[in-house]
Amino acid sequence: MKYQHYLLIICAYSPESLEGPSICDIIESRLTFLIIKKFETLKFIKYFHINPKALFKRENCPEATNIKEKDWKCTGWGIGFKIKKEKIKENNIIVQSLKDKIKSLKENDLKKYIKVDEEEKIKIGASYLNEKNFEKFIKA
Q1: What is the mean pLDDT of the chain?
Q2: Per the CB 3.0–4.6 Å rule, which of 10, 11, 36, 93 could disulfide with 24?
Q3: CA dist., res. 96 & res. 74, Å (int)
Q4: Sequence-distant (≥ 6) Cβ neighbours of residue 121 within 8 angstroms
Q5: In angstroms, rounded to a whole number, what is the distance separating the alpha carbons of residues 37 and 119?
Q6: Taking the mean position of all CA atoms in its chain, how far away is CA 37?
Q7: Per-residue pLDDT tens for 99-111?
Q8: 102 near 109, Cβ under 8 Å?
Q9: pLDDT digit string (tens) for 34-72?
């Protein structure tokens, strides 16, 4: 793997959700903007890469996503962060900073796309994964 740190975003929706597919599409179209807006202040990031192809798109949710609801569909994206060489020694600070930004992204940016009447039918998750755990997720 090329990156030490990853952001995994999962958009999941119930088969009864009329808006689920379009909300996942909106998130996908705004992903680069949202990541730049949220992470540009972290000076230890050299660059990040969003794979233009979703890890999975409108498929049954992989077991590794921990979506327990039956027949839900998932779309998932992986974003890799390249850290500046001189900052790599500060790994604990880097991990905590990334986790804080990811939590803020999930709570303040991604969830606003879900309308109140759809809250039970759509879930949006954002998680930090290190290189080893991202690799495990991809292989699962």
Answers
A1: 93
A2: 11
A3: 27
A4: 13, 14, 16, 17, 19, 20
A5: 25
A6: 15
A7: 999 999 999 999 9
A8: no
A9: 999 999 999 999 999 998 789 999 999 999 999 999 999
**Six-digit token string for 108:** 């303040």
User: What is the pTM assigned to this prediction?
Assistant: 0.92
Secondary-structure breakdown of the chain: helix, strand, coil percentages, each rounded to the nearest 5:
45, 30, 25
Query: What b/e sequence results for 36-46 when a residue is b if at least 16 CB atoms lie within 10 Å of its CB, and e otherwise?
Result: eebbeebebbe
- Asked whether 120 and 137 are in contact (CB, 8 A), the reply is no
Concatenate the DSSP letters of all residues of 22-71 into one string. HHHHHHHHHHHHHHHHHHTT-TTEEEEEE-SS-SEEEEEPPGGGT--STT
DSSP state of 84: P
Distance of CA 139 to the CA centre of its chain: 17
Radius of gyration in angstroms for the set of CA atoms belonging to the chain, rounded to a whole number:
15
Strand partners, 45: 83
62-95 pLDDT, tens digit per residue, is: 999 999 999 999 999 999 999 998 888 888 999 9
Which is it for the CA torsion 118, 25, 79, 69, positive or negative? positive
Task: Give residues with Cβ within 8 angstroms of 116, minimum separation 6.
Answer: none
